[in-house]
Each structure stands twice: as C-alpha cells, then as structure tokens.
Amino acid sequence: MTLPTYPDLNGASVFITGGGSGIGAGLTEAFLRQGARVAFVQRSDATAFCDDMQQKTGNRPLFLPCDITDRAALVAAIEQAADAHGPVSVLVNNAANDQRHKLEDITDEFLDWSMAINFNCYIHACQAVAPAMRAAGRGAIINITSVSYMMGNAGYPVYTAANSALNGLTRSLARELGPDRIRVNALAPGWVMTPKQLDQWVTPEALADHMKRQCLPDQLGPDDIAGGVLFLASDSSRAMTGQALVIDGGVVVTG
User: Fold this and answer.
1) pLDDT score, position 153
2) Model's pTM, two decimal places?
C-alpha cells in the first residue's frame, strides 16, 4: 500500500508506545517514511527492528526499552525522546494487551495489570507530553483503541471496558486541551492480522465468522491503520478532535 505524504510531518517529533511490533511497527515505519523523528518504547529488544527500519527508510527510530506500566519509566522515556528529537509534537498511545479472559477468572491482580497496560499508561503519557504541547501551542494525541466495546465483544471484558474508557478520555481531553490547539482523537481498528493475532487468536473458524460480518472482503493489516494515524497526526485533520475514527472493514456497520 502506498500511503500519502504529509509535508508537515517531516521533522516532527513522534513518540509511539509499543512501536516495534504489530500495528505499532507499521506506525513507526509510516512516520519514518514521512521524515519524522520517531521514538518508541516496548519491553522486548527492538535493535534488529531499528536496523531494518534504517535500511528500509533511511531513517532510524530511537528505541527506548520501557515497561509502560511503570509510570516513572514511561515519563523518563518521553523526556529522553524530547532530548533527542525535540519536544514531542505527536503522541501515539498504541501499546495494549488483549489477553482473553472470562468474568469469573478476573482477579484483582489481573484487573490492575490489564488496566495499567490498556488505560493507565495512556493517561500517564498524555500528562507527560501536554506541558510541552501547551508551550508550543499545538500537538496531536492519537489513542489507539478498538471496536471491541462498540461490538460488545465477549471474551475480554476488562480490555473492552478499558477501550470504552479510552474513548471517554479522548473526548474529555479534546475539550480540556483544545484551547491550546492540542487535538486528541482515537482510532478504533477492527481485527488486524498482526503476527501476535495470527499466532494466538486467529483460527480458520474464527476468521471465517469474522469475515462474514465485515462489509469489505479484505483482511486488515497494519498499513490500513497507519494511513488513518498519519491523517490524524497531520495538519490535514487540523479541525478534527474528540473523534473516534473507525477502520474495521465495516464490521461495526453490520453489528
């Protein structure tokens, strides 16, 4: 897929959580191809991924090892990114964990862990970038959620609840940060065929059932999400805030 070019993203300081794998890897590559200065965090080593990105795009991302559930570590990583690339002008909260679980199996420990990954760190990252964005009088925050709460999907109730909460957070922060021209939007993907999904959750039966509910006949890949994120990060969406952009191939339409 050929993605459009947004000249205002050239040289932008972009920070992505979970930017070395899955959807996040696609986002990192897309921003690098725009000429952006990209920093990303994740727990596992991403040196080989950074080498690959430099070879493919001629632009090397800054990888910062980090456990995003550790607030101090996440804030420190954002500060490191700002030191290297300038104040963060685009934040993409992407990292998440959709581990399947049943209501009766939810413990306090699991609840705390899941919310820390799927909700709390989004707030912490927003808090960390907001002061510099306010000082600059502009900024873009994109929260990656999912269509799970729109569909009322079963099988991961805490994850679904966190996604619903993220959309409330997005709308509230759009109102709070709007006077400083900081735009806050969500992007809700459908079922994206990342390596993790293919390894853990995609079965022929589950995929066939899903595709019956999807209007468009093509499976989604990270590039499909990257195009929407670039748009939300760019000046092309300068009048858009507090919205949830759905890219799901038409699943929500069919219910």
Assistant:
1) 86
2) 0.94
Taking CA atoms, 4 is separated from 1, 37, 110, 185, 223, in Å, by 10, 18, 41, 20, 12
| 149 is annotated as an active-site residue | no
The CA angle 231-234-240, to the nearest 5 degrees, is 75
Q: How far is the C-alpha of 157 from the C-alpha of 179, rounded, in Å?
A: 35
Q: What pLDDT sits at residue 255?
A: 59
> Are the CB atoms for 117 and 97 separated by under 8 Å?
yes
Between CA 26 and CA 15 the distance in angstroms is 14
Q: Which of 6, 122, 149, 159 is catalytic?
A: 159
Domain boundaries, the chain: 7-254
The 8-class DSSP code of residue 116 comes to: I
Homologous superfamily, domain 7-254: NAD(P)-binding Rossmann-like Domain (3.40.50.720)
Q: How confident is the model at residue 16 (pLDDT cuts 50, 70, 90)?
A: very high
Other residues' Cβ atoms within 10 Å of the Cβ of residue 33: 18
Q: Which of 69-73, 121-125, 128-132, 217-221 has the lowest mean pLDDT?
A: 217-221
